[in-house]
């Protein structure tokens, strides 16, 4: 296949009730490994970049990495800017070719969030891009964005008005989910997903996926969570894989960076193929 729009990927997943891994990469190695894992699983994949990653690597370099690594790729892939409260960063990414953005104005009053989201959607449309929206901050800090305090959950009608007024392509509700590592099995509001989907027909993005149980994933995906965000699991896999290899290297006094990279690549690929199998997207490439 090739690079496609976020909407094409999530709309198919939504219609067939499977989830697509939306994985936050942190560098060139994790980007290549996630893409390779998607190819191995014959799965669509959403590659996500945080504001922190975009700024640390640079817009031009990161996008050049993306275009180089996806040239001739055999599965549907798309590039998404995750949790971005900064309009300037959104504009820079859209100008360079990102396929979609999550405008995160969840700390603003809903009315102001809605007003600005309408503007972001219009801006994205001029680039042929798509927008994910949210009105409640998902608990937990991710790459410097967010809060450890759970935000007030808006009424269903407020959420419906936001979705209908802004025209967002994907909606990320607060359902008791959280970014980071859960201290216990999360208590999730499954019915809220069903209510949103039945009222709008808009695909749902599930945030805070790292640490949810298989049964929770299966239930939520069956209700319309077509985009499943994974960030913490990628970071943990990446760091622990490096740590394990370096401990062995120290014991053996053998220092070979290419072997380290290959080891980490294998583990990140395995994470990606496992997510595709768990969420039902394996074998769904077109």
TrEMBL record:
Co-factor(s): Zn(2+)
Pfam entry (one): F_bP_aldolase
PANTHER family xref list: D-TAGATOSE-1,6-BISPHOSPHATE ALDOLASE, D-TAGATOSE-1,6-BISPHOSPHATE ALDOLASE SUBUNIT GATY-RELATED
UniProt protein name: Class II fructose-bisphosphate aldolase
Origin organism lineage: Bacteria, Bacillati, Actinomycetota, Actinomycetes, Micrococcales
